[in-house]
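quick one, 736 residues, struct below
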Amino acid sequence: MATLILSAVGTAIGGPLGGALGALIGQQVDSAAIGKRKVEGPRLKELSVQTSSYGSPIPLHFGTIRAAGSVIWATELVEHQERSGGGKGRPSVTSYAYTASFAVAVSSRPITAIGRVWADGNLLRGAAGDLKVGGTMRVHTGHGDQQPDPLLVQAEGAEFNPAYRNTAYIVFEDLELADYGNRLPSLTFEVIADSSSITAAAVCQALMDDVDADGLAPVMLSGLTVDQGAMGNILTVLGEISPITCWVENERVSLGLAETTATSDLPVLPLPCAGGESAEDARQDGWSRRRDALPTSQQCAVRYYDIARDYQPGLQRSIGRSEPGDVTTIELPVAMSAAEASTVADQAARRRTQARDTLRYRITEIDADFAPGTCVRTPVAEGIWRIEQWEWQADGVMLDLVAAPIRAPLSGSADAGRANQPPDLVAVPTRIVAMELPWDGTGDGTARAIRVAATAATAGWTGASVYAELPDETLQPLGSTGRRRAVAGTVLTVLGSASPLLFDTTSSVDIELAADDLILGNATWTQLMQGANLVLLGTELLQFGRAERVTGSIWRLTALLRGRGGTEHAVNDHSLAERFVLIDSPLVWIDNAAFGDAANTKIVALGLGDVTAAESPVINAGLTLRPLSPVHGVVTRLSDGSAHLEWTRRARGTWAWLDIVDSPLGEAEELWEIAFGPADRPTQIWRTATSELEIPAALALTLTQLAASQNFAAEFRVRQIGHQSKSLPLIIALPA
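---
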């Protein structure tokens, strides 16, 4: 404000030169009145930087802290090639994956363990010790008896591979890099250097020789990191948490807290003794007091590693509005909570606004209870005083005292802010169901529709590799499932039988899905007619109109359309614990050219959470290419004794039957097989190219008599013959 006013006055009186002089004088006035506002830039080390420079110092860690490391050894990327596909009408796909092996040094002081590991900010290793991608991780804690890593010995030779004793490092072997752009990610580690919080005294004694730091024991640290080249500044860092004083006792440096936590039972100095020749020596009264001028009011900000935000750098400011003066940013490479950091900022700001209060106090004898660093009370001044130094003079012992404020504990409330932390989900075993589905009407209908539903109990599942186990026990790679889970589970109640020709409104079935977060939805009649909510239940395909969550992962399905897709034969063949799959959910398409006979082939999946591979036979093997059984079979006995058989044909892939006209069968030719007698030993077989058959009177009589004499049912079994297989039979009874 003074700058603007004096600049305007100077311009009016002396022109441009007067304006410049007025602005200069005004700047001096403003600086003296309100000070210059200075904001120091952040100097706290960020956590996302990983180095590999030769000669870079490796820090020391205390407590639990998050820190980057230095890559000390690495191999070239290893390429892995996998080929899949190449079947009829489908291209051959060759996929490439890359892995790497490397070692990262994290601490030049022995540690206890490594907790979580982050790669490019995402969790690579969870709190349970599980890697989120493929590979192996080994931790070397850096103790004096540390042995060389076997991978480094194998790669470099025993004579060229040190054990890196007194250096903690981590070795990653064959770490998959697909999630990180096929490059080494930037890693940060949760370093557990000590099993619990550590005292400031233990830190100082570990870093400095021949120092008595027991007086710092009340200061507890959750975690601290110190560069080797900055160990001399550790007292400055600790002094921002709680001021430190030092003195020499018995030729040894002693450290203690400049503040006190005690308010009673402190020694009291004797009455002062007059003496000396100058006012400074308090000749008349034996003591004198001096209080410095009040310092400029300041605000303090503390940058720290926030425990609640995965040790990301946080910032807390002291309480109160911004006052004239400097804003001091304190860099603390310490892991603490937001409340603790806020308290440190408040205490630092309070210290910077308090005047220094000192006493010079003479006593007549040397007393061990009044050594430097001791907090005492005096008979001449209220409050608690700390002895900074003493001087043995001719007429007594002169003590220099300074007012010792009460040390407040690090407690309070503060908001750490919202942290977008990556979820720590443990990889769980894979569950798969392999099935063959009916032809959907697209294409030429000559390729089997084999699908795999892969799911797991939690979203921590990251997918699995899929293989076909052939009859000779060899494995044929089929690709991967991807990370999206299918909606699948098991059956808890037995579904009763019902007619596939009617809408089943009475039956219900309870399903337990693989996870609580998997859901099922309802469908209207129109949606059902469009194919919605198609599921596999055992070997039957059905649709449900209503799904009700019973509890957790248990659902109840009602309003059913049964025997869909040519599976009406399975409506009476249900049992407990059979498999359930929602066909609308993400399924893995399998190239059926990878194996021959689906009925004798198993599908195998192996993921990160699988101790043993998940297996499943191909349910309804052959369903895609199997013709549909005919319906509405009728036998008519004519007046001359002959029998006339006729039936209605059905075509694969024409499920909607939108135009209400006869549909093509989807086969190379129309051919029917009619057998009479037991299924395993028919007595008569006919083949015809039309959906009807004439039985002469004499033959019809013979067949009736034969069935009666051999005690089997007089029934015809009608099958459609397709270019790959036969349909299931339609049974038509021969009337007497």
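The first strand starts at residue 60 and ends at 68.
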